[in-house]
Automatic annotation (TrEMBL):
Residues 195-269 form a coiled coil. Residues 436-448 have a biased composition (Polar residues). It comes from the Bacteria. This is Peptidoglycan hydrolase CwlO-like protein. The keyword Coiled coil applies. InterPro entries: UCP020408 (IPR016772).
Length: 457
């Protein structure tokens, strides 16, 4: 069984109409009656007005994550999202702010209108630039040009809300943006090397600037002394000229002109050194800002690396403990003995390995794919006698994750998100829960396991 992404692109017939009404009809012609979601079905007003720009609430709920994450920065969301939610602007994480913004966009209402207003105000120029497209082919050509130039966020918002953005155009834009996200981590290693080189170059530039400033200070002191000396000489010559009217005026004028030329040459030399110093200072400031940006990216990369190392260590300990003796169990997974684990989302390959790992520890492992093939309404049926619910945030859509959280809160079932759908993330979570359970067991505050009935709650 192949793994299916959380967002499945709809397939359109080859004879797709260029009009908005024809595109929506073709996209849903292959869907059985009653199987399409209400949020994805176009309204009659949309079908009657194909030349109206789409609103944020009109878009498919699977597109809100990419639109919010690509077209709005975290700082803008931190100013806007807390107005409609209970999140703390200062202490909420970037992921919490992003999830809250996506939920507000899906729910519609005043929050969705505020997000729509912010996007239209920021990318009004791109929207006007894309208005020249009068058919899907021209709109797709404009998107490809923007993709080549790297101007992604304005073009993405203009394409997604364009009147002629049929299903295939939005699929193409979403697919291009999705593949770009895979290229983000490739530059991390080169950035780290550049950061080290820039730090060395920055230190060298600082030393050079200090030497130049000292030299300029010496030149300025020398210039001032020369000016005072020349002024004294000019005053003496003027006094001599007044006392000696028979002195040759030609010689005096020649001497004064030579002094003026010497003074002009010194001023020109000082101007050159001043310009070089200002250029070097500006370059040093630019390098410092760039180095700070790379340092922040390096800190984020190191934090992610620490999480991955913790997962790898937990997985290695579990595998060593499991392979040390025939039939033995990992010490950190013994807490799963006799427990029922419900795993929502994930990938088929890793899910099979997780099932074997949990069952070898004496636990029961139940898998729900998050609504790709299994119905989302079966969440409640998968939770009876569940001791813990686990879901990877990278292999489950927002709608399924929110529905799962509500069901778990309603029935008081403990749930935990995973960073990825890998076996290492699952083992690291089980290790932390096992240690926390041991500590709470020593203190005598172990909470009772959740049990509920499907009929009576």
């Amino acid at each position: 069984m192949q793994s299916v992404p959380p967002f499945r692109l709809a397939r359109t017939p080859s004879g797709e109409s260029t009009s908005a009404a024809g595109a929506y009809g073709a996209a849903y012609s292959a869907t059985p009656a009653g199987a399409a979601d209400a949020c994805c079905t176009p309204t009659e007003a949309q079908l009657r007005s194909p030349h109206r720009r789409a609103r944020l609430s009109d878009l498919d709920s699977h597109l809100h994550c990419s639109v919010i994450g690509t077209c709005l920065s975290t700082n803008e969301l931190r100013k806007l999202v807390p107005k409609f939610t209970d999140l703390d602007r200062q202490h909420a994480t970037d992921l919490e702010i992003h999830h809250a913004a996506v939920e507000l966009a899906i729910e519609g209402g005043a929050a969705a209108k505020a997000l729509q207003k912010a996007l239209d105000a920021r990318y009004s120029g791109a929207v006007r630039r894309f208005e020249v497209a009068k058919d899907p082919e021209a709109l797709l050509a404009l998107w490809k040009d923007a993709l080549k130039s790297g101007d992604i966020p304005p073009a993405y918002w203009a394409v997604m809300t364009h009147p002629h953005a049929i299903m295939s155009v939005r699929q193409a834009a979403f697919g291009d943006l999705h593949m770009l996200s895979h290229l983000v981590g490739v530059a991390n290693r080169a950035d780290i090397h550049r950061l080290v080189a820039l730090e060395e170059e920055n230190a060298a530039l600082k030393d050079k600037i200090e030497r130049q400033q000292e030299k300029l200070h010496e030149l300025t002191t020398e210039r001032d002394a020369s000016l005072r000396q020349l002024s004294t000489q000019v005053a003496e010559l003027s006094a001599k000229a007044e006392r000696r009217p028979d002195t040759s005026e030609v010689n005096l004028e020649a001497e004064i002109e030579a002094l003026r030329e010497a003074l002009a040459a010194r001023d020109e030399r000082l101007a050159i050194h001043t310009s070089r110093r200002e250029t070097a200072e500006q370059r040093a400031l630019d390098e410092q800002r760039h180095a700070q940006t790379l340092s922040q990216r390096l800190d984020n990369t190191i934090a992610t690396l620490n999480v991955v190392q913790a997962e790898c260590n937990a997985l290695e300990q579990a595998l060593v403990a499991q392979g040390g003796e025939a039939g033995s169990k990992a010490e950190d997974l013994t807490s799963l003995s006799g427990k029922r684990v419900v795993y929502v989302g994930g990938r088929p390959g890793s899910n099979a390995a997780l099932r074997q790992l949990v069952e070898s520890a004496g636990g029961d492992f139940v898998v729900h794919d998050g609504g790709i093939e299994d119905r989302k309404g079966m969440f409640a049926a998968a939770l009876p006698r569940a001791d813990i619910v686990v879901f990877p945030v990278d292999c489950i859509d927002h709608d399924s994750m929110n529905l799962l959280k509500r069901v778990c809160d309603r029935h008081q079932v403990d749930y935990h998100p995973l960073r990825t759908a890998s076996v290492a993330s699952f083992v690291e979570l089980m290790t932390r829960l096992s240690r926390a359970s041991q500590q709470s067991g020593k203190s005598g505050n172990t909470p009772p396991a959740s049990r509920f009935c499907l009929r009576h709650g």
